[in-house]
Amino acid sequence: MMNTFSIEKDGFKLNGEPFRIIAGAIHYFRVPDEYWRDRLLKLKACGFNTVETYVAWNMHEPKEGEFDYSGMLDIERFLDIAAEMGLYAIVRPGPYICSEWDFGGLPWWLLKNDSMALRCMDKDYIAAVDRFFDDFMPRIVNHQITRGGNIILVQVENEYGSYGDDSEYIRYLADGMKKRGIEVPFFTSDGAEYQMLTGGTVPEIHKTANFGSRAAEQFARLREYQPDGPLMCTEFWNGWFDHWTEEHHSRDPQDAANALDEILALGGSVSAYMFHGGTNFGYMNGANDYDAYEPTISSYDDDAPVNENGELTEKYFKFKEVISKYAPVPEVELPEPVKKKKYGEIKFTKSAKLFENLDVLSTPVESVMPMTMEKLGQGYGFVLYKANVRGPRDEQKIRLQDVHDRGYIYKNGEFVGVQYRNDKEPMHSISIEAEGAELAVLVENMGRVNYGAKLKDAKGITQGIGFGNNFVYHWKNYPLPLNDVSKVDFKDGVEPFDGTPVLLKAEFDVDEKCDTFIKLPSFKKGIIIVNNKVISRYWEVGPQRSAYVPAPFLKDGKNEIVVMELEGYKNPVCVFDDEPDLG
């Protein structure tokens, strides 16, 4: 007999019987695949019956037309493990997901097309979405409950009412998924505000709301748009994410449990966002930009019931207690806690100047005006711009016009200063001697905007570089993704920081692979690379002061850590600790 899941006027029905969704969000692409089983078991043991996940288009199609479903991206295996445990699944394939993820999950290469309009019926955008859906949808079709799998719901777009009101686009996505074999019910989710529900919904698709408290009020607003059918909070915000420079967010566990209780007491279904947050490994954090640009940290701990490295928090046990009032909590034997280890203090013993290794890290592209990272065919990391400036010029301000996001300025190889995206005016002045000078600007992409009207967020120098009102022309553009530092010429010894970017390297032995946390107590800003894989950003402003390194990212025996420091260090050591510090 075929299993069914439906949305009826009086509620969700599983095989014709009433069913309440009690889901928790775990994003497969934020968690090492070796840990999926551990995290999903903890979800089930807490009383949840469903796992909910976004789909990160930018991870699955990292280059235009090239797809990847390996390792941490193997969503089919993730769904299979959940199904083995008797967990149902909700899949949210976007194409836009927000999620504090770079560009809201949209692939960076869309920004090569200046004229493309995002998240609407723009023909170029739709062509890219269609290609992604053509490749992705067949992979989940057989995982639907109607075909013996565990997917019960699929979301159309995400919080669209926070961005636009193109109903034709919403219908096009839903029709496209149907044509590609999706037969379980669709839904939309939006904040419970008039503008969001007006712009983000269409009559024929079930509507859900996203909120963190005041369930009766939020559901009442939803009822104005949908008089019957099951009530659901698709994103119950039980915690919150952090931006650099902010205080760490935390929510009282009892307050979060009370809010969950209110949703369930009203007969609502729910998905806890997040149940387990995981990590924005590498460069994949997003950013907000309202009055100022605010990049998200690398940790996506989110003050969730299961923390970044998989430990149960007080919130976990409070949620389990609440859920047990409304549904049977199965007897599940929890897995052994993942081991953590202090590998101790490691001294960096080798170093390499970034600017002395450009020939092995990059191939320059010449252009009249500086090119954006995307135009250079690069998604993430850094880009260096170099030009010879004729002199003489009196001392005047260097203008990095619309720098995205943080520009380090050098004259003849010596550090001048930093221009950040939030600086309203040019910050630094130089003069140019009669013989001229080399001007260099290293720009860090700190994460693309993932929410709101400023989603189109190309990286690098987006308008030009100049002095006063004059532009400087004829540049060499060096793409620096730093996703492979194996050819860098590291020399023995570490010198005091001289103002220019430096890569420091150390080797350390691992006798037992365990989770660990890297801390850089005397470093200022940069990236951490372990075994040639970019793991995390770091910045002394906090709140995050450690980087999570899961055991699967380590090797038995000799391992390597490389740090690229941009702004200076006092003592060239790192510490591998057994406890995180998220501020």
Distance between the termini: 53 Å
Work out the helix count. 10
Helix fraction bin: 10-25%
Radius of gyration equals 25 Å
Structural class: alpha+beta
**Uncertain parts:** none
In the sheet with the most strands, the strands line up as 4-5-6-7-8-9-10-11
Mean of pLDDT: 97
Outline type: globular
Describe this entry's structure for a reader:
The protein is 17% helix and 31% strand. The chain is built from 10 helices and 33 strands. It has an 8-stranded parallel β-barrel, surrounded by 5 helices. A 6-stranded antiparallel sheet has the order 26-15-27-32-29-30, with no helix packed on it. Helix 8 packs parallel to helix 9. The radius of gyration is 25 Å and the shape is globular. It starts with a strand and ends in a 6-residue tail after the last strand. The mean pLDDT is 97.
Please write out the topology.
Blueprint: E1 5-8, E2 11-14, E3 17-18, E4 22-26, H1 36-45, E5 50-54, H2 57-60, H3 75-84, E6 88-92, H4 123-141, E7 151-155, H5 167-179, E8 186-191, H6 194-200, E9 206-211, H7 215-225, E10 232-237, H8 253-265, E11 269-276, E12 287-289, E13 293-295, H9 314-323, E14 344-347, E15 350-353, H10 358-361, E16 365-367, E17 382-389, E18 393-404, E19 406-411, E20 414-420, E21 429-432, E22 437-444, E23 460-467, E24 470-471, E25 475-480, E26 491-492, E27 502-510, E28 516-519, E29 525-530, E30 533-539, E31 547-549, E32 557-565, E33 573-577
Parallel strand pairs: 4-5, 4-11, 5-6, 6-7, 7-8, 8-9, 9-10, 10-11
Antiparallel strand pairs: 1-2, 2-3, 12-13, 14-33, 15-26, 15-27, 16-25, 17-22, 17-25, 18-21, 18-23, 19-20, 19-22, 23-24, 27-32, 28-31, 28-33, 29-30, 29-32
Helix pairs in contact: 8-9
